[in-house]
Design brief:
Layout: E1 3-9, H1 19-36, E2 39-45, H2 46-50, E3 59-62, H3 67-76, E4 81-83, H4 86-91, H5 94-102, E5 111-115, H6 116-122, E6 134-138, E7 149-152, H7 157-166, E8 171-176, E9 182-188, E10 194-198, H8 209-223, E11 227-234, E12 240-247, H9 255-271
Parallel strand pairs: 1-2, 1-3, 3-4
Antiparallel strand pairs: 5-8, 6-7, 6-8, 9-10, 9-11, 11-12
Helix pairs in contact: 1-9, 6-7
């Protein structure tokens, strides 16, 4: 009998703009690659999981990103394997990720979590000293819109926070700016796949790719992720600093190669009985 799994596609709400087609495309390609490896795949949808309709399975190929679906999947899987595990997805929600990174020894910018209304009213934080460049980020799920991550400084912090408050976002992260070129990456937990590139094609700094990979894999291990991506900054000393970590990104620049690697990873993990909560 063929191996069977349920592939859970992401709610379009969490795939803004071009990511909508890209997120579906990477899951489609992964499903095709798993089918080539002998799996029979049942398609599901995050909105179905949000409604409490979780198909029974021994393996879930999980692209859920919202808190409702992640919590319901975690409660329903009852010992089944999920890649990514729903707990690791919840760990990527910014308020949890900040706490995890602050509790680790990984290089991560100084970051504070604030009630949005209070920050908008007071505009005060220990990080907001004159001249300090800051990033204000929504404090729950990843960015859904460009305005979910904004650059500011001490003088503009209250007004920026008010824009988040007006949009119904109750918690924000204030993060110090790290100078240096930004590197985007896609990876798997066992290191069998790692791809990186400069966010700005004009950047051409010398980069230690092995150092990038090591930091990315270590950060993912802290969160419990298996299929992941994120952003690093290469500092003036050449050392990378993690600034963001995402559960199952689109892998758009390397989709077909990534899908085959993801499918091999899932296939191997399932066959070897490896399990993560």
């Amino acid at each position: 009998m063929a191996d069977r799994a349920v592939a859970i596609y992401r709610n379009p709400r969490f795939s803004p703009q071009r990511h909508l087609s890209n997120d579906r495309a990477i899951m489609d390609a992964t499903v095709a690659a798993l089918t080539d490896l002998g799996w029979t795949i049942e398609a599901s949808d995050e909105r179905q999981i949000e409604d409490g309709r979780v198909p029974p399975a021994a393996l879930y190929v999980n692209m859920c990103q919202g808190p409702v679906a992640s919590e319901r999947l975690r409660a329903a899987i009852n010992g089944a394997r999920a890649v990514n595990p729903p707990a690791s997805v919840l760990n990527c929600h910014r308020h949890r990720l900040v706490e995890l990174m602050r509790g680790s020894d990984l290089p991560f910018p100084m970051t504070e979590l604030h009630d949005t209304a209070t920050l908008a009213r007071e505009g005060a934080t220990a990080l907001a000293t004159n001249g300090t460049r800051l990033w204000l980020k929504r404090g729950d799920v990843h960015a859904e819109k460009p305005e979910d991550v904004v650059a500011t400084d001490a003088t503009g912090l209250a007004a920026a926070a008010e824009q988040f408050r007006a949009r119904g976002i109750g918690r924000v992260a204030v993060q110090t700016h790290i100078a240096g070129p930004v590197v985007k990456f896609y990876a798997l937990a066992d290191g069998s796949f790692f791809h990186w590139y400069f966010a700005d094609p004009a950047d051409c700094a010398d980069v230690d790719a092995e150092a990038l990979k090591a930091l990315a894999v270590r950060a993912a291990a802290v969160a419990g992720l298996e299929i992941f991506g994120g952003d690093l900054v290469v500092g003036a000393d050449g050392r990378p600093v993690l600034i963001d970590l995402n559960d199952w990104p689109s892998f758009a620049p390397v989709r077909e190669r990534a899908a085959r690697a993801i499918a091999r990873y899932i296939h191997t993990q399932a066959r070897n009985g490896h399990h993560r909560d």
